Amino acid sequence: MSAQKGYQDRTEILQGTLDMLILQTLQWAPRHGYALSKAIRTNSGEILKVDTGSLYPALHRLERKGWIAAEWKKSEVGPRLRVYRLTKSGKRHLLVERSRWAKLLEAISGVLNPTKKESEA
Amino acid sequence: MRFALWGRKQRDEELQEEIQAHLALAEREEMESGRTGKEAQASARREFGNVGIAEETTRDMWGWRWLVDFFQDVRYALRTLRKRLGFAAVALLTLALGSGATTVMFTVINSVLLKPLPYPEPDRLVSLQEQTEKLTQYGNIWAFAYPNFLDCKRESRSLDMAAWRYSVGTLSEQGKAEYVSSRQISAELFSLLGVSVQGRGFLPEEDRPGAAPVVVVSHGLWQRLRGGDPGAVGTPLVIDGRSFTIVGITPAGFRWDGEEPDVFTPLGQDTAPSMQNRNRHPGIQVVARLRPGVKLAEARADLALIGSHLAQQYPESNAGRSFVAEQLRPDVGDVRSTLWLLLGAVSLVLLIACVNVASLLLARAVSRERELAMRVALGAGRGRLVRQCLTESAVLGLSGGALGILLAAIGIRPFVAFWPGALPRAEEVQLDWRVLLFALAASLVSGLLFGLAPALRAPVRELEQTLRAGGRTVAGSSRRLHSSFVASEIALAVVLLVSAGMLGRTLLRLSSLEPGMNFRNVLTTRMALSSDLLAKPGQIRGAWQDVLERARRVPGVQSVAAVDTVPMREGNNQLGYWTTPAVPPPDKQPLALTTCVTPDYLQVMGISLLKGRFFDDHDRLGNEPVIVIDDVLAQQAFGANEPVGKALYVPGMGSKSWSEEDNPVPIRIVGVVRHVRHWGLAGDDQAKVRAQFYYPFAQVPDAFLRRWSELMSIAVRTSIPPLNVVEALRRELRGGSGGASGDQALYEVHTMEQLVSASLARQRFLLLLFGVFAGLALLLACIGIYGVLAYLTGQRLPEMGVRIALGASAGEVIWLVLRQSLAMIFAGVAMGIGGAFAAGRLLVHRVDGMQPAEPLTFAGMILVLVAAALFASFVPARRASRVDPLVALRYE
Predict the structure, then answer these.
(1) Which among A112, B17, B683, B707 could disulfide-bond with B848, CB atoms 3.0 to 4.6 Å apart, if both were Cys?
(2) Are strands B159-173 and B242-249 parallel, antiparallel or unpaired?
(3) How far is the C-alpha of B759 from the C-alpha of B416, rounded, in Å?
């Protein structure tokens, strides 16, 4: 139970962004959990490290919302792998998330770098 | 539920597989970058973090967390209950008794009062009656006249109708005479009710005067008489000396109007002239079914229209007369209020049981305070703990309820058999889904009720204090809660005890009432005069004379009389009377109970003559009409004046033809006798009509003799136990000589003692059950107060040790504990007195012969309760006084 609380603390930072990163990463190709975390790490230039304690809950939550779908696939390396792919409604949601993120970024940078005019006024 | 669990297990395994695959892939990558197997595995795990937590939080995402928690709580609750078997057993037993008794009462209420009639589409059945604009002393609702029924049936567009009428008969079969209850019915009755008759019902052409005599017999009679022989249909059956052909047999268990008549004959074959009369007629009952799509209001409008047609067509009889329809309901009499009273009492017991379990649970919750505090410290949410506590009490409540249902299923038959007299619709009493729903709801609600208090304590404040205190704290709020539990238990017990006390005193008072007669060694029985004799009016008087003489000859019989209405038995006749010839209209006349008797009646019943004389053999038809009144009528009509020798005017009596149209004739009062409690020991004081007068059977005009003879009973005074003369009397009175064909049967044989006792049956039954419930309440309340005090003093043992060490005597310590319990007891008594007053008022309204509670009853019952409660508190008090200070202090 304390763990749940901790998880919630983390997701307060990552919630939304983690979902968006997962959806975005799955847009190119279906992936299983490990590949997904690796892809996010690589694509962010090793800066963003996905906490696996958050990754799987997020995957299962997105699946329940119908934005991604899962399928068991045989792998050449041995164990079965649960492979996630983006669904249609997931694609739509990704667009919404991205535009929301863009607005947020713009707003934040607006605050961080105010134009002269505004500071004079 | 099982599916969800099964699905969950599979998903659990898949999740593990998914995470293991993740770890395997990570490990492989580590090894590829040149680490050894062990290092790679450790690094992969480190990278991943806590696998358990990841799994747990992922599972949370599945959205059925509440269900899993629920099962976890149920398992946990069962485990804790198993661990504390003593506690669980006491709680379960208490609840099972409470809910079992409640379920039994509700089962009876459900079957007798709530369940619809056992015919198809019972809500579309209505009963019809005539209504007059003019109101008489008997009201303005009347039974139907047969011609009115025929007209209504023909003209109605909204209703299908059938008629029926009470009748009796004597069956002659294989030389034996048997009295049977009979109904004359119109041909449509069975099909209208939706009852399928084996063989067939009556045809419309059989429902007419002069048609071949046919009969439908009940399943019971068919079994009894013909051993269920399927060939019985088509064979003859002799009723009242007339041969009928059996055409049909009713299905097993068929009941009509709460009874199971033996035979049915076609109403239309009744050729009595009064049947064709719209004004003065024997009266028939009419039942109807709404045609498809018709509403009751439409049927009423239809009937009103028919009523106005008939009023125009037959103004003499039908002016101001209309027809009214009411939904047909089972007739259950005063059983309704008895049942609700008992359900009320039994609910109080259940409530006490709940409070008891609640205080047990609370004591446990307080001792578990540390455990709960620990769990909060480990991150349990407030809601989660409340839910767990409630789940525990719900599990307890439901198990108690299930046990209760089991008890009810076992106990319901004995209870119904135990009911005094006949419980209406008793054969329909059974557990059904409504009862199960009720029991389930009741046990769930009670579970939540007694779980609430402990549950609300669950969110622990001042966590560190609780944890640091090491489980020895008694929060003040818990003590207050415990006290209020005990107080409310005491209050509920006071209500039940005082009610039982009131009933007990009432019964004592009623049994000691003077019935107005000597009811020992008296036997009464109805008697059917042979149909051969009834056919010849000239012989009826002689036949009765013969019957009385034969009865007098039976060994053990001292005196014999014939009488129409026996005191305290079902049935009475009421007539209006006046003291001058200027008799007011019927609704202004005072009413009196009238009894038709032969001269020895006073002697047989042991009624004392106060003034004048009783009847003798000179009081015959043709001599001056005479009457004997009781002291109540004397007081009402004449006050302090001397009544004997005065005249009484009774419309429809005294004149030659006894017609109400005649001018009132003076009837001489020749004597005054003591009032007899005709309505029973309990009911007589409240009865509307109490005044009585007697008139001689010998002065009944010939025209009425036949009808009177159908109603007469025999009463005999015996020198030996009255039931011992029954067989000899039966043999002697069967007839077989003097024109009678040996088919005279005795029925409804009772001793007067039985009738007197039956008139108090309801009060006795209520007293018994209230007594049982009150005893149960007392026991539960004592267990409750004992449990709470034992717990509270247990918590205070170290304190007691200190007190004793400092020199307190045993008596002082005992007093300390008793004082605490006295405070609770008196708070409860104070609360209970108000409730007891309310319950007492309800009883006075609902039970005949009840009188408002006297202070003595209150004081006595409360004394019993206080003594019992103090006794229960004495045990823990003494234990506290004997505590060894050393042991107690080591506790610190």
Answers:
(1) B683
(2) unpaired
(3) 19
CA distance B765 to B770: 8
Strand-strand pairing, B139-142 and B647-649: unpaired
What is the token pair recorded at B888? 């107690």
How far is Cα B860 from Cα B857, in angstroms, rounded to an integer? 5
Q: What is the CATH number of the domain that holds A88?
A: 1.10.10.10
Phi-psi region of B652 (alpha: psi -120 to 50; beta: other; left: phi over 0): left
Say yes or no to pLDDT of A6 above 90.
no
Give the model's pLDDT for residue A116.
54
The Cα of A38 is separated from the nearest Cα of chain B by a number of Å equal to 10
Please check whether residue B25 touches A, CB under 8 A: yes
In this prediction the pTM is: 0.69
Kindly give, in sequence order, each residue whose CB lies less than 8 Å from that of residue B57, ignoring residues fewer than 6 positions away. A3, A4, A7, A53, A54, A56, A57
Predicted local confidence at residue B480, as pLDDT: 79
The answer to whether residue A83 sits within a structural domain is yes
Q: How far apart are CA A85 and CA A69, in angstroms?
A: 5
Q: Which of B57, B65, B68 to mutate: most A Cβ within 10 Å? A: B57
Q: Which chain A positions have a beta carbon within 8 Å of B18's beta carbon?
A: 32-33, 56, 81-82
Number of domains chain A is built from: 1
| CA angle centred on B541, ends B536 and B546, rounded to 5° | 110
pLDDT of B467: 61
Sign of the Cα torsion B153, B156, B161, B166 reads negative
d(CA B794, CA B787): 10
Q: Which residues of A touch B14 (CB under 8 A)?
A: 72, 82
In a domain, A118, yes or no: no
Least confident of A11-25, A52-66, B262-276: A11-25
| Residue-range definition of the domain harbouring residue A37 | 2-109
Q: Which two tokens stand for residue B560?
A: 């014999």
In this prediction, residue B595 carries a pLDDT of 95
Contact between chains at B53 and A56 (C-beta distance less than 8 A): no
Query: Minimal Cα–Cα distance from B794 to chain A, Å?
Result: 35
The amino acid occupying position B580 is: T
Question: Quick check: A3 and B57 CB within 8 A?
Answer: yes
pLDDT band at A12 (very low <50, low <70, confident <90, very high): very low
B245 touching A (Cβ < 8 Å):
no
Residues of A in contact with B8 (CB under 8 A): none
Amino acid at B140: N
Specify the DSSP class assigned to residue B760.
Answer: T
Interface of A with B (CB under 8 A): 1-7, 32-35, 51-54, 56-57, 59-61, 64, 72, 75, 77-82
Averaged pLDDT for residues A28-48: 84
Q: Starting from the edge strand earliest in sequence, which strands make up the sheet with A81-86, in order? A: A31-32, A81-86, A68-73
Spans of all domains in chain B: 2-63, 66-117+335-472, 122-327, 474-515+755-882, 529-744
In a domain, A120, yes or no: no
In a domain, A15, yes or no: yes
- Contact between B15 and A3 using a beta-carbon 8 Å cutoff: no
Distance of alpha carbon B218 from alpha carbon B253, whole angstroms = 9
8 Å CB contact of B53 and A34: no
Quickly count: other Cβ atoms within 10 Å of residue A48's Cβ.
15
Cβ distance of B62 and A60 shorter than 8 Å: yes
Which pLDDT value is given to residue B462? 59
Distance, in angstroms, between A96 CA and closest chain B CA? Answer: 23
Is residue B749 helix, strand or coil?
strand
Low-confidence ranges of chain B (pLDDT < 70): 1-7, 63-66, 174-175, 379-381, 422, 457-478, 736-741, 889, 891-892
Q: Which of A19, A36, A43 is nearest to A82 (CA)?
A: A36
State the distance between the two ends of chain B, measured CA to CA, in whole angstroms: 50
